[in-house]
Amino acid sequence: LDYLNAFYLLLDSAAIEIDHFAYFGLHEITNRDAFRVTYENGKVTGENIATESIASIFQLGRYSGHYRPDLPIEQDSKIMMRQVISLNAIAHAGTLFELVVASNGLEKPLASFAKSLAEYKVGNYETSVVLAWFIIEAAISTLWEKHLDSINDDLTGGRQRINNGRKGFLIGRDFSTSIVSNMLELFRILDHDLFEDIDSVRGHRNKIVHARKFSPGTPEAQLAMKTARTMIERLWNIRFTPNFSYSVSGL
Question: Which of 17, 51, 12, 18 is CA-nearest to residue 34?
Fold first, then answer.
């Protein structure tokens, strides 16, 4: 499911970047949407229908018996309103997805970003901010550990400047995300503008968790996702364009 959500995000982005068309109403793909197909010798021998999902409509649409016999298929209501996504856009999404498959763990932050964006689209800003913060927090932790490894030196007698015990302390509970992000900015690993965005999102997340009167809106959710996207690009060098339109019928 993480890989499916990551690909959905990249396909949505590719349609925007290549076709200049925001077509998909991106939502989280769950086990209600996914379905299993069995093949033998290249032929389908079994398929379960995702009856609790709109995916079932598209599944059944593969069979001619589910269309009106008195109308050409292209005039059916399930078909005539669809748009075509270009092969170039699909190929671009596929190229990015190859990077995901080749990069251990990249599917998880991309899937989390897709979920954050999906919650934003339906107005669940608190959940959107929290999910985006998880991405930021994990990225900060990764940057901090990489920095510690980069300044570790061998000492005499087979000792290391940052041994396991010292590293355990430096990445432990005494070094909160707030302290670590400050350290990374002071070491110029994070630029100051990005540090300020991280600090703002951290504040919003803390208010959501600890202060019931705080209610985030569009600006807070978009800042959280923008910052999470920047951290993903920073760590994995993969770029994508999220669609911040709302999933509201008639708008």
Answer: 51
Q: What angle do CA 196, 116, 111 make, to 5 degrees?
A: 110
Is 50 exceeded by the pLDDT of residue 251?
A: no
pLDDT band at 247 (very low <50, low <70, confident <90, very high): low
Looking up tokens 């996914």 gives 34
Structure-token match 């959940």, residue found: 127
Two tokens at 37?
A: 């197909």
- Residue 38: DSSP 8-state: E
Helices (H), 24-86: 55-60, 77-80
Nearest residue to 113 via CA among 239, 5, 11:
5
Find, among 33, 27, 201, 29, the residue nearest to 121 by Cα: 27
**185 Cβ contact partners less than 8 Å away, ≥ 6 residues apart:** 191, 192, 195
Question: Going by C-beta distance under 8 Å and a sequence separation of 6 or more, which residues neighbour residue 26?
Answer: 8, 9, 12, 114, 117, 118, 121, 243, 247
Cα end-to-end distance, the chain, whole Å? 29
Strand partners for 39 = 44
pTM value is 0.88
Tens of pLDDT along 75-117? 888 888 888 999 999 999 999 999 999 999 999 999 999 999 9
What is the rounded CA–CA span in Å between residue 131 and residue 119?
9
